[in-house]
Amino acid sequence: MPLMKSWVDSANAPDTDFPLNNLPYGSFLTGDGEAHCGVAIGDAILDVTALEEDGLLAVADQDEVLIFGDWTEFMALGPKVWARFRTDVTALLAEDAPDPVTLAAYMVPQIGTRMVLPFEVREYTDFYSSKHHAFNVGSMFRGPENALPPNWLHMPIGYNGRASSVVVSGTDVIRPNGQIKGPDDDVPRFGPSRRFDIELEIGAVVGQPSSGPISVAQAFENIFGYVLLNDWSARDIQAWEYQPLGPFQSKATATTIGPWIVPAAALEPFRASTPERENVLLPYLREPEPMLYDIALEVGLTPDGGTETIVSRTNYREMYYSAAQQLAHHTVSGCPMRVGDLLGSGTISGPDPHQRGSLLELSWGGKEPFGIEGGTRSFVEDGDTLTLRGAALGDGYRVGFGSCVGTVRPAVKLPEE
Amino acid sequence: MPLMKSWVDSANAPDTDFPLNNLPYGSFLTGDGEAHCGVAIGDAILDVTALEEDGLLAVADQDEVLIFGDWTEFMALGPKVWARFRTDVTALLAEDAPDPVTLAAYMVPQIGTRMVLPFEVREYTDFYSSKHHAFNVGSMFRGPENALPPNWLHMPIGYNGRASSVVVSGTDVIRPNGQIKGPDDDVPRFGPSRRFDIELEIGAVVGQPSSGPISVAQAFENIFGYVLLNDWSARDIQAWEYQPLGPFQSKATATTIGPWIVPAAALEPFRASTPERENVLLPYLREPEPMLYDIALEVGLTPDGGTETIVSRTNYREMYYSAAQQLAHHTVSGCPMRVGDLLGSGTISGPDPHQRGSLLELSWGGKEPFGIEGGTRSFVEDGDTLTLRGAALGDGYRVGFGSCVGTVRPAVKLPEE
Fold first, then answer.
1. Which residue among the candidates A36, A133, A329, A330 is catalytic per the annotation?
2. pLDDT, average across residues A149-168
3. What is the CATH number of the domain that holds B273?
4. Is residue A238 predicted with pLDDT exceeding 70?
5. Would you call A279 and B241 a contact, using CB atoms and an 8 Å cutoff?
6. Do A176 and B334 touch (CB under 8 A)?
7. Which pLDDT belongs to residue A367?
8. Are B122 and A164 an interchain contact pair (Cβ–Cβ within 8 Å)?
9. Under a CB-based contact definition with an 8 Å cutoff, are residues B262 and B191 in contact?
10. Which domain CATH number covers A47?
């Protein structure tokens, strides 16, 4: 598919994340401080809440679907409504649209506009489905022979995260306190994490509910779209707490998501296959067709007042399990899923050292600090800004995710200290 | 404190769970199928939604707090409103109440009335804070020398559960399917859990939000009340999936909560201390005063068409960490908590074999099936009804939780099989 041309000039530039081919969904604050739903186009946002209010855009046959500035209710209406809306917005923004002059009054510049969470994150699950990441982390802790847990090649391993800690790009992240016990310490101490880290992930947004086990094919249909996702992780807190029930407070400080939900429909031309497998998967996990996507990803690290260094470049197609497989597995026990559930892919690492999606891997557990402009890093330092970016690369255009940004601020002192 | 007398005769019986001293909060369906908020008194329910609608009971200065038949909005109003409401309802139901005749029209019999979830479970966390339980389970898997994980005596270990799977007492539970791999199997198979289990717990209901670390004292104040909680667990699925990120699908089928939230205020006379500790806790986890409760608990198992056997009797005061300590720990990383968050205590086991709160422990991993009326059990069988009960025992009265009931139905066949 070539670039689809829009009357919005900036949407036709080859380097924009938001050509007409994309049309991702976000939520922004208007001048009155009200949340509105918006669709990104070039360097602008189309205010679709205002368009709906003014009767210029109808969502299904219902009124006021977008009135709360949140896409949850829209998602609940289902794939047919998603498809029709996308067709309607495409027509409004296409080169040959009937009335650009009217539409122009509903455009807001992206620069200077504050974004908010585009949906209510109902529950948040984080997976662990990049083989290179699992192998790297396992090698550090258990040696390369025992790197992958025995279950890993048979199912997408995941854990329930904390939905209340999900924030939108641009929100500062406060370094967590917690219990930390080094290998030579007799007892744990309490204090700020010294091994605070990021995880480069893609999050899948569940747009349709299910009340029992669903197939991989159905799971694929139930996914509304995808966001960039940074699962902030305190490695020292994690090391001490995670046995036997998994990560808890080490992952509960914040998870930052990008402001734009890229619709699954926009990613259709970029489908990719999961890799060849060592084991035959059980039938409930088999994909009837390719359900991953080819999405180039990168991580930038900018010290306080400094210059950005791109510290990692990888691709979503490195995943061993697709989001559809993860969602199908999630339901197999009968677990109900709801509109607004968010599924993190797990850290996405490629085979090469510069393709690692966490600082833990990039600095090999802190033993091999890596260079950045004007310094080195093992883990995140106060004042550092971490930026994730991603885009599916078409012929002369890109379907991008915008950026997913968070700056780390110093830990708070607790009154008890 | 002695029994407080009510004009509702059944509330003065020494064996009722619901004397005037209790007044727990629940939600029920009216004859019209509408959810209303109710307060249990003796064998009846006082319809407080109808009382509010008719202007006979005011919740703070706001109208229609109880109109949706859910206690979430009420909880959000905070401890002063909770206290005033409790005082007002106590006055309406006391022996010397001014107008029992009018009130009698707002009474619904408990028998035959269908209960629904009394609040929207925002997120669900399950802890692992009974030392006897942790020791029993650890002994089975790692031997008694290594039974307790090294972190266990230093912090309340917990994991995020799945809020969407929380159901109210009386809801059938469908035996889950999942991946299972026995110690002698080369590869996992897919099928119904053969080691389906219960966990006897008390759940703490968070009634006030917090946005950063809070003290144990503040955490105690933020807890609205307590419910019985059965965390259904598929032990064979759990054994294969839980390393390294903790339980996931093994705990996602269902968690049943009792229909009645017993207010923290009703449990005040029954406060109890956590046990003496092997280690000095870090300051952020220290309790300024006793924050556990003395609550007698039991588990009944009734085979399909058979007679109930009480298979376990224990007490909430066996916990090593209180709910206030769990909640304070939950917030230490900065994790935001919201109204309606539910915190499971973890399986409550006492030191004696008949005090064990799971079948896994009662049958010692299935190796020592235990006797019930007309048979034996290692794990739950299809058609079994499991009933949890609990009450704080006063002098001539009890502050009870009602019962928390679930019947297990056969697994579904998946289309892929």
1. A133
2. 98
3. 3.90.850.10
4. yes
5. no
6. yes
7. 96
8. yes
9. no
10. 2.30.30.230
Chain A residues within 8 A of B253 when measuring between CB atoms: 333-335
Instruction: State which of A116, A139, A171 marks the end of a domain.
Output: A116
CA nearest to B346 within chain A:
A245
Nearest C-alpha neighbor of A309 from the set A376, A231, A234, A382: A376
pTM metric for this prediction:
0.98
| Domain boundary, last residue among A116, A151, A175 | A116
Q: Which of A191, A187, A182 is nearest to A239 (CA)?
A: A182
Whether residue B154 and residue A188 make contact (CB cut-off 8 A), yes or no, is: yes
Domain-located, residue A84: yes
Closest CA to A88 of A23, A37, A141: A23
Where do we find the tokens 């109930």? B308
3 state SS of A34? coil
Res B417 pLDDT > 50: no
Q: Does A232 score more than 50 pLDDT? A: yes
Reported as a pLDDT band with limits 50, 70 and 90, residue A415 is: low
Number of domains in chain A: 2
Which of B128, B159, B212 shows the shortest C-beta gap to A159? B159
- State yes or no: is A133 an active-site residue: yes
What are the angstrom distances between the C-alpha of A414 and each of A168, A178, B214?
26, 11, 8
Range of the domain at B144: 124-409
Number of residues that this document lists for chain B: 417
The burial class, CB within 10 Å (0-12 / 13-18 / 19+), for B22 is buried
Tally of residues, chain A: 417
E strands of A86-176, at which residues? 107-109, 115-116, 124-127, 158-160, 166-168, 173-174
Residue B63: band (very low, low, confident or very high) from pLDDT cuts 50, 70, 90:
confident
pLDDT tens by residue, A104-150: 999 999 999 999 999 999 999 999 999 999 999 999 988 899 899 99
Q: Please tell me what DSSP assigns to residue A210.
A: B
Residue A413 Ramachandran class (φ > 0 left, ψ -120 to 50 alpha, else beta): beta
Would you say B268 and B250 are in contact if contact means Cβ atoms under 8 Å apart? Answer: no
Mean of pLDDT over chain B: 96
Same domain for A79 and A60, yes or no, is yes
10 Å CB burial of residue A281 (0-12, 13-18, 19+) is: middle
| AA letter at A373 | E
How many whole angstroms separate alpha carbon A311 and alpha carbon A303?
Answer: 12
Which token pair is B88? 């007002």
